[in-house]
Design goal:
Elements (H helix, E strand, L loop, with lengths): L4 H6 L2 H5 L1 H18 L1
Length: about 35
């Protein structure tokens, strides 16, 4: 699964159109940050 933190942060409309995808992107980016720290 690809994670694009910039897209997740800069495209809030995406969450309104695809809320499930938005939630998954948030979880993915959070996990990536947690692992990388």
């Amino acid at each position: 699964m690809k994670v694009n933190n910039k897209t997740a942060e800069l495209d809030p409309e995406g969450y309104l159109i695809h809320p499930e995808d938005g939630i998954m992107m948030l979880l993915s980016s959070w996990l990536v940050r947690k692992i990388s720290n």
